[in-house]
Amino acid sequence: MSNFDIFRGRFKGDVLTPSDLGYVQALTHDAAVVAFVKDPRDIVLAIGIFGASSEAAIEASSGLVIDLSRYLNNVKVDPKKRMAYAQGGATWRAVDHAAIQHGLAAVDGVVNHTGVGGLILGGGYGWQSGAHGLAADSLVQVKIVTADGSILTANEHENPDLFWAVRGGGSNFGVVTEFLFKLYPQRRTVFAGRVIFSPDACERISAFLDAWWPTATPEEGMVVSMVTMQNAQAAVVCYVFYNGSADDGREAYRGLFNIGPLSDWTGEIPYEQLNSMMNPIAVPEAHHSCKKVPFGDKPSQQFNHNIRKAFVDISSSTDYYVALLQVYIPRSKINSVPADATPCRRDLPGESIAHVQWKDDTPEKSQGARAVCQTLVTVLSHGGRSVSESTSLVDSATYDQSQTFFGDNYARLQTMKKKYDQDSVFSHLRDIPDKPGPGTPGQSNPQNQD
């Protein structure tokens, strides 16, 4: 009996390989095995087999996906303590619906079908960040399975170094099976929705942003996007948020509405619907490639006629859904936390995101998507480099990309990586290399310009 057969026999959850019914539907990453975990000990078993056995590694040569979403997806709210317990496979939709029943809300993202874990472990910001900081700032405790198979609790008092690392250091240190995080009082309805403009309104929108952004309050937030519509025509879609009534929200964005939108889909909505309004931009079943560029001094530097013209030219292909997102979430609360309190950088004024989405994947489409992203980044930064890249098809991060992404906290993260995952068992998305590689500062490699 092979090690893989032993693994499959002992595993309490579901194990799918390419020969199994449902494998294609379950696959979200390139992998030979998809394992739906029922118990943290399943993860210990998977790490022991796939992390240490060369035979199993050969049988699963494209890797193992440990998926918590099928079974470990529960959310429990403690209204007295204003805390939420979310299992590692839970989504923000489940958190939003559970918390608002008690007049509470979490700091989550801007789409609700994404997992709790990915956002928090990456630092994470969303509509509530103007008032309460990053998602990682609200984290109180995790339960995590590390690379040696240990099941640990990490908080400010128990394994505090690991607790520091997981609040923005990504999925580099293990598989988190439970998150405990703070909740905040929240009114039941908010003012939010989409406002759609012709691309010709770009200059007037940027003038509004230049005036509004420096004085935006913690109750406000906008994501301004240039997108390709279903007819391959470009449009400007403004997603607005105001944590208050419709009357107050319309007053806060009066200058935007006075421009004259093509359509106005805003209104006072139940809070739990807020984080679904941008879901179409990130369809889970599609392939995605994203790159980020930090803001300039004024919104008009990243949202103007020249960028609009370039976007229209770049996004004309019907093979891709292309979006250029400008995220305007007030950062005073985020930046009030000391820079070394968590791994993620806090010194950026905001970011633009080049996002390409496509279906029916081929190597040519993947390469084309990355080329479109890089072209948009070049337009945005006038030849500068992006802060980070994330795509389901990208290789592990190079040393200089990770160093740029984490800034001055990178050396400490490297120490934590050596302590908890010296062999880089967890390195699929943003690894933490301990040595410079090709293309790092001081070396010449023009091919590595992501």
Core attributes:
450 residues; alpha+beta; Uridine Diphospho-n-acetylenolpyruvylglucosamine Reductase, domain 3; Vanillyl-alcohol Oxidase, Chain A, domain 3; 3 domains; five-stranded antiparallel β-sheet; 19 strands; disordered C terminus; FAD
Regions with pLDDT < 50 over 5+ consecutive residues? Answer: 49-62, 383-387, 389-397, 437-450
What does the average pLDDT come to? 81
By CATH reckoning, the class of the largest domain would read Alpha Beta
Task: Please tally the β strands and state the result.
Answer: 19
Into which percent range does the helicity of residues fall?
25-40%
Q: Which shape, going by the Cα principal axes?
A: globular
- Bin the strand percentage: 15-25%
CATH architecture of the largest domain: 3-Layer(aba) Sandwich
- Remind me, CATH topology of the largest domain? Vanillyl-alcohol Oxidase, Chain A, domain 3
Major β-sheet, in short? 9 strands, antiparallel
Name the quaternary structure: single chain
What is the radius of gyration computed over CA atoms, rounded to a whole number of angstroms?
Answer: 22 Å
* Backbone structural class: alpha+beta
- The count of helical stretches stands at 16
Number of domains: 3
Amino-to-carboxy terminus distance: 45 Å
Family: Belongs to the oxygen-dependent FAD-linked oxidoreductase family.
GO molecular function: FAD binding; oxidoreductase activity
Region (Disordered): 424-450
Biased composition (Basic and acidic residues): 424-434
